[in-house]
Structure formats: structure tokens, C-alpha cells
Write a structure and sequence with these properties.
The protein has 3 domains: 44 residues, Ubiquitin-like (UB roll), CATH 3.10.20; 101 residues, Type II secretion system (T2SS), domain F (Receptor-associated Protein, Up-down Bundle), CATH 1.20.81.30; 247 residues, Type II secretion system (T2SS), domain F (Receptor-associated Protein, Up-down Bundle). Helix content is 75%, strand content 5%. Strands 2-1-3 form a 3-stranded antiparallel β-sheet, with helices on one face. It is elongated and about 95 Å long. The termini are far apart.
């Protein structure tokens, strides 16, 4: 991530510039090593363009980067130099956003910048973890191996995310349609029919009286309901965008019966897989923990992992600080402890990543199988209630007329 800084040199000269670092602390340390006295340090947040605001339509998708990584690895293995490889892919790609970025990377390499440094200028497309591993590949000379590991890692992340979205999209779609249909019925269709029933002055059943009360409320306070709903959504979004709100939201998500289990297993799987990939790339453990923190979106786990990172820097290892939190399973902690003692931490973490990925996969299937029938029963209950509230008094009125 880029950070803008204002600092004094050893000669007392005030300088301004930008430094690339994974965290603010790392940026400050880099400036300190350059004998700068930091006056101010702020994350650089460029104005987002259309590709960043709507990546699903204009931007570079994760799948594009996966394919790009495998293509580059294959061409490098064939003996083609990296600059020629990028030019070839630039000429063949049909994705406008990716073509633009590749063009800029090619220009940077031609001017003497490394591929990893150029990628760091595009953090929304190439996360810092990606450009950092490319930097390791450039230093060690095994770029194709690093690229294949990155592609495999991103494929697994993408597959799990797609499955979760697929499992939730159908219930969300059905529920949204049901809410819209019920709202239209209550505010448009039913008022005229219920007014007709009231005109016969017959005793109405409880279900009909309840439906009339709901209909009168919905039609009488139509605008207030819409404004209130919009205000609630905006307030909730604003609150959860704050540090405290995001933490409380993530804590609630972890406490939910089935969703919490899925969240925990996905987070642990991502944690184990990320650490395994970075360890095999040869990165030092302190930097690995910083990169893992960047990939952890859940604020509750991020807070615990930050504590683990600090205790790791104090020489307590990885398994000991992790064992002090209930967020990490005993199986994961034991496997990490064995890996630390036997020197097989990377393979043990990969095993745990695979295991919890499969567990999350099964939990998602279970949730999908449970949600769909429950949702159908819920919608059927609402429809049945409305039908009963309307049909029963119609028969009563028909009997009284007859």
C-alpha cells in the first residue's frame, strides 16, 4: 500500500514523497532506516476510477489474474523472457482494464523498474501479497513456481467464495421477490378487497382483522416505511464502516449458529493456506504475519492475529500465542506445534488449509439444504395466512347473502 510522507533528512531538509509498505508501521520503519525523521505519514488513497468502483463490469477480476499468472508461468517455463511474455499477453488479451495495466507494467520494466515494483502501483489489481511474492520470485529465479503457487492459492479462494455466493444468492433472491410481492399485495391489491368485506358488516375472523390492521398501517404510513427502511440501511452501513461497528458486526456473524461456523472455517482455511504459500516462498515469519493480517477481513480474528504477531516477535513462536485464543481450534494449534518442532510447518499448514476448506464446503452445502425448505415453508406460511384471511370471510359473506 502506498503511503505519503513528510519528513526531515539528517541535514534538516524537509522532503515529501511516497513509500510502498504493507502497514503504516512498516512504512515508518522503512523511513527510519533511511535516516528520515517522520513528520506525517498517511495512506495514499487515489480517486477510484470506474474499474475500481464497479470491478464486476469494468475492472480486472480475480479470475483474470489467475489466468494471467498461469499464462506467464507457462511462457517463462518455455524460455521466453518476462518482457516478451508481457508483450505477448498484452497483444492477446481482450480485457480492456487488464490490457491497460499490462501496458503500464511493460513501460515501467522498459524504464528499469522491476515487475514487482510496477505491480505495487496497482494494489487494487495486484494485492501486496501478490507483488511481494513476485519480488521473491525475481530474487530467487523461480518466478514460474511462485506464479503457479499464487494461481493455485487464488483459485481455491475464488472457488470457496463462489460457492458461498451461489449458496446465498438463491435464498436472497427468493426472499427479495417475496417481500416485494407481499408489499404490493398489502398496499395495492388487498385494500380494495378488504374494504369490500367491511362493507357487509359481518363479524370477521382474527386473521382477517390482523390483515386489515397491517394493510391500513402499510397504506397509511407508506412513505414513512420506505424512508425508515432507507434510513436504517444507511445508518447500518455507516456504523459498520467504522472500526467499532465492523468489529461488532463480525463478532455477531461469528456467533450465529451455522453462519458463524462457516465463517470460522473459511477464515482458518485462508489463514493456513496463506501462511503455507508464503512460507514456501521463503518469506520471514514476521512479514508473513503482516501479510496474513492484510488478507483477514474479519476484525475479530484480525485483532487476535495482531496479538499473535506481537508475541511471535517476542520469541514465543506461533502455536503458544494461538493456543491462548478460542478462535483457533485445538487441532490447528496442535498441527502448528508439531510443524514448528519438526520443521514441517508449511506442509502442516497446507494440510490444515485443505481440511478446513473441505469442512467449510460441507457446511455451505448443509446450510443451502437447510435454508431452501425453511424459506419455502416461511413463504408458504405467509401466502397461506393471506389466503385464509381473505377466503374465510368471503365464504361467510356468501353464506349470509344466501
Amino acid at each position: 500500500m502506498p503511503y505519503n510522507y513528510v519528513a526531515y533528512t539528517t541535514n534538516g531538509e524537509l522532503v515529501r514523497g511516497m513509500v510502498q509498505a504493507p502497514t503504516e508501521e512498516a512504512a515508518e520503519e522503512t523511513l527510519w532506516k533511511s535516516n528520515y525523521t517522520v513528520v506525517s505519514l498517511k495512506a495514499s488513497r487515489p480517486r477510484p476510477n470506474a474499474a475500481e468502483l464497479m470491478p464486476s463490469f469494468f475492472g480486472v477480476k480475480r479470475r483474470d489474474i489467475i489466468i494471467f499468472s498461469r499464462q506467464v508461468a507457462t511462457l517463462i517455463e518455455s524460455g521466453i523472457p518476462i518482457l516478451r511474455t508481457l508483450r505477448l499477453l498484452h497483444s492477446q488479451t481482450e480485457k480492456k482494464a487488464l490490457k491497460t495495466v499490462l501496458g503500464k507494467i511493460i513501460e515501467d520494466i522498459q524504464s528499469g523498474t522491476s515487475m514487482s515494483e510496477s505491480m505495487q502501483k496497482h494494489p487494487t489489481i495486484f494485492p501486496y501479497i501478490y507483488s511481494r511474492m513476485i519480488q521473491v520470485g525475481e530474487r530467487t529465479g523461480n518466478m514460474e513456481v511462485i506464479l503457479r503457487r499464487l494461481a493455485t492459492y487464488m483459485e481455491r479462494e475464488d472457488a470457496l467464495q463462489r460457492k458461498l455466493i451461489s449458496a446465498m444468492s438463491y435464498p436472497a433472491f427468493v426472499m427479495s421477490i417475496a417481500i416485494v410481492v407481499v408489499y404490493v399485495m398489502v398496499t395495492v391489491t388487498l385494500p380494495a378487497l378488504l374494504t369490500l368485506l367491511l362493507a357487509f358488516n359481518t363479524e370477521l375472523p382474527f386473521a382477517t382483522r390482523a390483515l386489515i390492521a397491517v394493510t391500513n398501517f402499510a397504506t397509511g404510513y407508506n412513505r414513512q416505511i420506505l424512508i425508515g427502511t432507507a434510513a436504517f440501511v444507511l445508518s447500518f452501513t455507516a456504523y459498520t464502516s467504522t472500526k467499532t461497528g465492523a468489529y461488532q458486526r463480525d463478532r455477531v456473524l461469528l456467533a450465529l449458529p451455522l453462519i458463524g461456523k462457516i465463517n470460522r472455517e473459511i477464515i482458518i482455511s485462508r489463514f493456513a493456506n496463506t501462511m503455507s504459500v508464503l512460507l514456501r516462498a521463503g518469506l520471514p515469519m514476521p512479514e508473513i504475519m503482516e501479510l496474513v493480517l492484510q488478507t483477514t477481513s474479519n476484525k475479530v480474528y484480525a485483532k487476535v492475529m495482531e496479538k499473535v504477531r506481537l508475541e511471535l516477535l517476542q520469541g514465543q513462536g506461533l502455536s503458544i500465542p494461538m493456543s491462548q485464543s478460542k478462535l483457533f481450534t485445538s487441532l490447528l494449534v496442535q498441527m502448528i506445534r508439531v510443524g514448528e518442532e519438526s520443521g514441517t510447518l508449511d506442509s502442516n499448514l497446507e494440510t490444515m488449509g485443505n481440511f478446513y476448506e473441505e469442512e467449510a464446503d460441507r457446511a455451505i452445502d448443509t446450510m443451502a439444504n437447510m435454508v431452501q425448505p425453511v424459506l419455502m415453508m416461511f413463504i408458504g406460511g405467509i401466502v397461506g395466512f393471506i389466503a385464509m384471511a381473505v377466503i374465510i370471510p368471503i365464504y361467510s359473506v356468501y353464506g349470509s347473502i344466501k
